[in-house]
Amino acid sequence: MTAPQRLTDRKREAIIQAAIAEFRANGFDITSMDKIAATAGVSKRTVYNHFPSKEELFAEILSQLWARVSAEQESAYRPDLPLRDQLRPMLMIKMQMLADNNFLDLARVAIAATIHSPERAQNMVARMGERETVLTVWIRAAQADGRLKAVTPDFAAQQVQGLLKAFAFWPQISMGQAGLSVDMQNTVVESAMDMFLACYKL
């Protein structure tokens, strides 16, 4: 990689880190691209060269956060392993992300930013949904192998993740409840798997 490219990458990372700090401290609407540029130590033009809009920048932050967490797991479908043994680590990774304070802070910012702007919400969701989740891909592979019933993979993935969020996301986001203990995280994951497999396992 050439020096100019490395400098560009460093500036992009500085912009992202500055944006995270500003969004967490001040919320989406109050944070400006000017303030992000100042915090990052770059020009406003440089910020816009990397990110055409504040929405794009925020969506990239959420996408990177999810990618960092997802990258830690081995997620390829295995025909030789019990479904439960494959599903558990994927749901535990999701649970860890839901317990991450950075993620929760940014999720609060995102919800506040989109609650009065359905169009903004749709744009952010579209950006986040550009690539399929690990769980969706896994469900499709298990169906192809004849081990899960025919159901839209994305629907089933959202369904089981919704079971986790009912305990480990929405109470924390909307009511300020403390994060779940490790024991409770395991209980929620095991129960979600029970329901998912009872419904869809062949």
UniProtKB/TrEMBL annotation:
Pfam families named among the record's database cross-references: TetR_C_7, TetR_N
SUPFAM superfamilies cross-referenced by the UniProt entry: Homeodomain-like, Tetracyclin repressor-like, C-terminal domain
Domain HTH tetR-type: 9-69
Domain of life: Bacteria
Annotated region of DNA binding: 32-51
InterPro entries from the UniProt entry: DNA-bd_HTH_TetR-type_CS (IPR023772), Homeodomain-like_sf (IPR009057), HTH-type_TetR-like_transc_reg (IPR050109), HTH_TetR (IPR001647), Tet_transcr_reg_TetR-rel_C_sf (IPR036271), TetR_C_Proteobacteria (IPR039536)
The keyword DNA-binding is annotated on this UniProt entry: yes
Keyword vocabulary terms for this entry: DNA-binding
Protein name as it appears in the record: TetR/AcrR family transcriptional regulator
